[in-house]
Amino acid sequence: MLDIRIKCEKSLLENLDLEENGYVQINGKNNYLLEKLQDLKAVRLSSGGTSLNTFIFLSKKGNIPLYFIGSVGNDKYLKILENELDILNIKYSFEIFDNNRTAKCFVLLNGRQRSLVTDLGASTCLSLKYVDTCLCNLPKNVFFYMSGFMIAAHLELSFHILDILKKNQLILNLSSYTLFSGSEYFFIKKYFDISNVVVGNFEEFYSFYKRVFGKEPINIRQILVELGYKNQTLICTDGGKDIYYTKNGKVYSSKIDKYLGDNVDTCGAGDAFAAGILYGFYNKYSIEEIIEIGKDWSEEYILENTKMIQELIF
Q1: Residues facing 10 on adjacent strands
Q2: Which residues form the Carbohydrate kinase PfkB domain (predicted)?
């Protein structure tokens, strides 16, 4: 997926019937949005999507071999993705579809407000045969990283590779509480049960717990104790509040020492945090050290992203 940042006035959002800080997905009923947004001048193009964002940040911070599998359209945006990943030394395999579009997320910036419009395009077309071929060429004993978004967009594929992932280290990012109300929940639950590590925010763990048990939890400690099992690590963030995590079936917390202020852009901070978690587990650090790495990387991303956005829109 490619992120396309566009500076706009509030009047444009109103004309397109978009909300500030809202999210819309392109479908058959609103294709006019794609036509209008593609004609607007972009202030920045960059690789995007939660999984790829995590890999990109990880490639900049840690010397770890990375391999990304996805599907794209045969268009100008494909070349932008390939060039960026080549520069970052991320190995990739893209299944290319001539009759479809590379996925895009239009990020409309109005001051500190933003509205997201996503065109999934070819990103949902990844075939079983192509993935099987890619997995056969991977080295043994690799870490797999899956997001809830990826699972929800590829239900058949997710079920198909489940047995393969059971035999390897798996880190799952819950991604969004909106994924637990429909049929995709059952697939995400299967991944949750076989994951060595699960990362998410409080809203995601809270919603997931309610779907699993059908009741309201008392607090985050109850959520993590009842959802996890002894050898599984669950990590729950909550904005600027303490981070909770499990170790050998017990729940611990880590304080957030620095307050970054209210006027910061936190979009993508969770992806940077997940990158730190991946880096720590890959290098076999203690869970306490891993949490600190995740916090540091997330903070660094927030500060850099806030500065970049301010330079673009002010």
Answers
A1: none
A2: 38-295
What's this model's pTM, rounded to 2 decimal places?
A: 0.88
- What average pLDDT does the segment 153-161 reach? 92
Helix, strand, or coil (residue 51): helix
Expressed as residue numbers, the domain containing 185 is 50-100+122-313
Catalytic-labelled residue, pool 75, 119, 265, 271? 271
pLDDT for residue 224 is more than 80? yes
Residue 118: name the closest of 132, 133, 101, 135 by CA: 101
Element (H, E) at 232: none
**Is 119 annotated in the active site?**
no
Residues 291/236, Cβ–Cβ less than 8 Å: no
Q: Going by C-beta distance under 8 Å and a sequence separation of 6 or more, which residues neighbour residue 210?
A: 216, 217
CATH code for position 167 = 3.40.1190.20
